[in-house]
Amino acid sequence: GSAYSSKVFRVTFLTLAASLTVPLLGVTVLLDCPIDPQPISLKEPPLLTGVLEPNVKLRKAERLWENQLVGPESIVNIGDVLFTGTADGKIIKIEDGEIQTIARIGHGPCGTPEDEPTCGRPLGIRVGPNSTLFVADAYYGLYEVNPGTGETKMLVSTKTLIEGQKLSFVNDLTVTRDGRKIYFTDSSSKWQRRDYFFLIMEGTDDGRQVSLPQGILFLLEYDTVTKEVKVLMVGLRFPSGVQLSRAEDFVLVQETTMARIRRYYVSGLMKGGADMFVENMPGLPGNIRLSSSGGYWVAMSAVRPNPGFSLLDFLSEKPWIKRMLFKLLSQETVTKFVPKYSLVVELSETGSYRRSFHDPNGVTVAYVSEAHEHNGYLYLGSLRSPFICRLNLQHV
């Protein structure tokens, strides 16, 4: 009897599955898909062992100014005064614990994804010589901001045509000590910041349809004296954070979708050349900043668990599943499937892993976007959290 009943069950199950699948397939064939995903081949993620061994060190961080700011993505210091840009388009100064808005590049209303293009979204922020601030606004471009007066000056507008394309998603920047050159990333010329998840899932390197090989440019250089913008690197997949080396001979560029960091030489014998700095990282790298020990801090808001199941790796070779997902579900819904996990790694100057701080499930530190070191503390920026986290490096 049991063989018969299991056969009946199997037939019933298959009939039911087929009756659901056929109309679902019909629907998904007819529906439009917002993205045109390309297969990406990632290597098997590195094992989380040794210095990458999971821990809960990030949970020792304290949350500061909770619910008083939203999405402080990138953080800098001038002395002990902290500056950051927030999701409601503001550039904020925090002095003696007091929060003050010093500038806005866009204008209100703010608060919804629809408002973002007019509201503006300050992302990367840096201090130049004479304590001036340089800010990359995802929608408006590169700006110089006077932290004393709040006066803003546009350096490169996103409306500027570069190789026949407008900049669509200005992301991060790094500045030479003399303030002469700014290296910055434009993450896509197809997707805006509010659709960053589409950009990750699409995985293409042809956001810029121009007559260049690969059809795309991403790492750019702005000369503050000649006011010229130069294209340095093309064909990157979602370039995000950038950091000049201490000797200012190369720039590191995070290639988020590919979980790797590229190096572009800006001076010396290798000038104009590029190579791989770190390949096959344990998560998707966001911003990168100098560490006091001569290396680099890299923040990751999504990991590729190994051992474990990595959704991003699973989907990378299967564009058809991505198409179906995005035909049926919104970007917000799909992001909920990506497990919350914050990871910060310190790299040596040659790109080897020195140490790692984890917060599995993002209990204390969620959606980490940047780790900025100042006076023995690591300040952790976030794309979405309503606070800044601070980790005492002596206590980890």
From TrEMBL:
<dbReference type="GO" id="GO:0012505">
    <property type="term" value="C:endomembrane system"/>
</dbReference>
<keyword id="KW-0472">Membrane</keyword>
<keyword id="KW-0325">Glycoprotein</keyword>
<dbReference type="InterPro" id="IPR018119">
    <property type="entry name" value="Strictosidine_synth_cons-reg"/>
</dbReference>
<keyword id="KW-1133">Transmembrane helix</keyword>
<keyword id="KW-0812">Transmembrane</keyword>
<protein>
    <recommendedName>
        <fullName>Adipocyte plasma membrane-associated protein</fullName>
    </recommendedName>
</protein>
<dbReference type="Pfam" id="PF20067">
    <property type="entry name" value="SSL_N"/>
</dbReference>
<dbReference type="GO" id="GO:0004064">
    <property type="term" value="F:arylesterase activity"/>
</dbReference>
<dbReference type="InterPro" id="IPR011042">
    <property type="entry name" value="6-blade_b-propeller_TolB-like"/>
</dbReference>
<dbReference type="GO" id="GO:0016020">
    <property type="term" value="C:membrane"/>
</dbReference>
<dbReference type="Pfam" id="PF03088">
    <property type="entry name" value="Str_synth"/>
</dbReference>
<comment type="similarity">
    <text>Belongs to the strictosidine synthase family.</text>
</comment>
<feature type="domain" description="Strictosidine synthase conserved region">
    <location>
        <begin position="171"/>
        <end position="268"/>
    </location>
</feature>
